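Structure first, sequence second, as always.
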């Protein structure tokens, strides 16, 4: 069931908002095409069609129109055609759907799915799961209770992952070890690099969801090695955090750190 957005006539007097001219070229996920200046290779920003504020495109969701004129989330920013950008929060997506923002942006009548926010969240979850599978195949992910504990002893992780329906006792043992190794050293100077910077812990997926992504029945504990894959995955979790609680309380990433994640819930 799709809700029909307001027409252009109903939006008269409201300034038009920008859409892009198309998705970034394949392999150039950090490049957004500018109509005036060509490819922009800096951290590109887009204007949210709801708030009218400009934000880095990695903190936003791109939407396109299907051939039938239906608003479609493009979480990978790869679908053809003009795209409209919305801040990566359920509230912003719901407002865009309910206030005719998509019709205004695309300058035509559009069909908006009844649960566009839910569709967007599901696509973000799938994208996160696909990236975990890639990390496993690249040898950048460790899964299993003992394996994660061993990985913690070897090196600082990029991100710890614990299933939301896992054993609290086992989770506390993993987190206790992380705290013992990477918690604040009270004898060190406060400005000592890394002092007190606990690894972030994602607790937003069920054990069977993690298992499907990693080729097992269930996965309760996993660890992403520090590096580019963890950096990219944390960015996707940052967007997902606008739709559901992502981080274990007290174990959020530090905003503007090397992970690039917003650290929001």
């Amino acid at each position: 069931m799709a809700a029909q957005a307001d027409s252009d006539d109903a939006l008269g007097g409201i300034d038009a908002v920008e859409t892009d001219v198309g998705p970034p070229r394949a392999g150039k996920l950090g490049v957004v095409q500018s109509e005036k200046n060509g490819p922009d290779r800096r951290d590109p920003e887009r204007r949210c069609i709801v708030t009218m504020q400009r934000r880095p495109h990695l903190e936003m969701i791109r939407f396109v129109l299907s051939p039938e004129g239906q608003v479609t989330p493009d979480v990978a920013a790869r679908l053809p055609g003009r795209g409209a950008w919305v801040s990566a929060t359920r509230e912003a997506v719901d407002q865009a759907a309910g206030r005719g923002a998509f019709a205004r942006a695309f300058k035509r009548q559009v069909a908006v799915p009844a649960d566009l926010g839910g569709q967007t969240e599901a696509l973000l979850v799938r994208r996160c799961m696909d990236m975990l599978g890639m990390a496993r195949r690249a040898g950048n992910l460790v899964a299993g209770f003992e394996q994660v504990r061993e990985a913690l002893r070897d090196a600082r992780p990029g991100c710890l992952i614990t299933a939301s329906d896992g054993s609290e006792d086992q989770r506390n043992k993993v987190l206790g070890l992380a705290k013992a190794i990477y918690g604040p050293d009270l004898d060190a100077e406060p400005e000592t690099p890394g002092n007190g910077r606990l690894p972030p812990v994602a607790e937003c997926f069920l054990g069977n969801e993690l298992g499907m992504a990693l080729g097992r029945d269930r996965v309760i504990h996993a660890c992403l090695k520090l590096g580019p894959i963890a950096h990219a995955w944390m960015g996707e979790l940052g967007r997902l955090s606008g739709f559901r609680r992502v981080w274990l309380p007290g174990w959020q990433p530090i905003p503007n750190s090397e992970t690039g994640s917003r650290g929001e819930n």
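Margin note: The chain has two domains: 2-110, 125-240.
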